[in-house]
Each structure stands twice: as C-alpha cells, then as structure tokens.
Write a structure and sequence with these properties.
SH3 type barrels, YjdM, three-stranded antiparallel β-sheet, YjdM_N, 33% strand, mainly beta, N-terminal domain of TfIIb, elongated, single chain
Length: 111
C-alpha cells in the first residue's frame, strides 16, 4: 500500500517520487513534496459520507427552521445546483419558495 499522496489534479493514486518532487504518470502533473499537504483541497461530505461537488442535487434530511421567522424547509426538499463554499455554512443554494440561503452539509444527502 502506497503512502504517497494522490495527484491534486486528477486524483490518481499512481503517483511516484522523483527526487524532491511527486509526479503523476497519468496527467503529467508535478508538485513539490513539501507543498503536498498544503495543496490538498477540502472535501465536502454529506450526512451519509458521500463526496459533494458543485452542481450536485441534494435532499434535506430533517426539517430546518429558518432564522427570522421565514418558515421551515421540510425534510425531503430537493435542492438543485448547489455551490460549495468555505465558511459557517458549506452550501450556497436557491430553494424554490424560499430564495437564496446557506445550508450545512450535515443536514443534506446527495440525491
């Protein structure tokens, strides 16, 4: 089992060391061994552990009360075309009937 990091561009697991560099044989990307941990991109996961990406469709897994008395987003509501962001709420989205809002990944499941 290899302890080398996966390629940050194509996620290939077949990387190898060449001196002080890591090299990906599949896409040809090279990166510094010292910079490898810092280059790791954040991975967002839903409540079930599935990896989320921009543009995915997710389903709300519990009723969510909106601040300011705006109502409740019901369990089972589908949210299309999500955008993943850094911050307190991981997902920026638009929900029909509610408008733009932020959601946390712990309250959604990939559809």
């Amino acid at each position: 089992m290899s302890t080398l990091p996966a390629c940050p561009q194509c996620q290939s697991e077949f990387t190898y060391e060449d001196g002080s560099q890591f090299v990906c044989p599949e896409c040809g990307h090279e990166w510094s061994a010292q910079a490898a941990p810092a280059e790791q991109a954040r991975v967002w996961r839903d409540a079930s552990g599935n990896v989320l990406q921009d543009g995915d469709t997710v389903t709300v897994i519990k009723d969510l009360k909106l601040k300011g008395g705006g109502g409740v987003v019901k369990m089972g509501t589908k949210v299309k075309n999500i955008r993943l962001v850094e911050g307190d709420h991981d997902i920026d989205c638009k929900i029909d009937g509610f408008g733009s809002m932020g959601l946390k990944t712990e309250f959604v499941r990939k559809a």
